[in-house]
Amino acid sequence: MAEDGATMFKQKCGTCHVKGGQAAPVNPADKAAIVWNKFFQRGRHKVDFSQTIGMDDLQVIVQYLKDHAADSDQPAVAVIPR
Ligand code: HEC
After folding, report:
1. I need a labelling partner for 66 at 20 to 30 A (CA). Which of 21, 37, 42, 79 fits?
2. Cβ of 46 less than 6 Å from ligand 1
3. Nearest-angstrom CA–CA distance, 49 and 17
4. Residue of 13, 24, 80, 17 whose CA lies nearest to 53
5. Is the CB of 82 under 6 A from ligand 1?
6. Does residue 47 line the site of ligand 1, with CB under 6 A?
7. Residue 45, by phi and psi: left (phi above 0), alpha (psi -120 to 50) or beta?
8. Is 1 exposed, middle or buried (0-12, 13-18, 19+ CB in 10 A)?
9. Residue 25 C-alpha to ligand 1 middle, in angstroms?
10. pLDDT per residue of the chain (82 residues) written in tens, 0 to 9
11. 44: Cβ below 6 Å to ligand 1?
12. Maximal C-alpha separation, the chain
């Protein structure tokens, strides 16, 4: 099922990363594309979310994060409000 990266980001990352939630809000423009590219690959995310976010979904989300990263043409700063 081809789901939109922005929707998946909000739904899946946003379950924890939300104001008043388990983790602080995150947004694509928090990091440069190259950083997003390596962040999950290198296991920088300390919390295991493999139960809720599969590898296929993660790829779609990371592509979305890169497309709207700090150094992209369309940085997204407040998809998840702070
Ligand atoms: C099960 C809950 C959960 C899910 C789902 C989750 N995270 Fe996290 N994430 C955390 C926690 C907890 C931390 C550590 C928070 C801290 O250090 O304050 C964290 C840390 C991070 C950090 C490091 C903070 C920073 O500023 O460098 C980033 C970036 C991040 N998550 C992005 C994501 C993205 C993108 C997704 C979706 C693919 C995601 N997270 C899904 C709980 C989650």
Report:
1. 21
2. yes
3. 12
4. 13
5. no
6. yes
7. beta
8. exposed
9. 8
10. 446 999 999 999 999 999 999 999 999 999 999 999 999 999 999 999 999 999 999 999 999 999 999 999 999 999 999 9
11. no
12. 33
Residue with tokens 């990263």: 69
Whole-number Å distance between alpha carbons of 76 and 79: 6
Q: Could you tell me the distance, in angstroms and rounded to a whole number, from the CA of residue 26 to the centre of ligand 1?
A: 7
Residues 6+ apart with CB under 8 A from 77: 27, 29
Structure token pair of residue 27 = 């947004």
Q: Candidates 9, 10, 13, 36: which one to mutate for ligand 1, based on the most atoms within 8 Å of Cβ?
A: 13
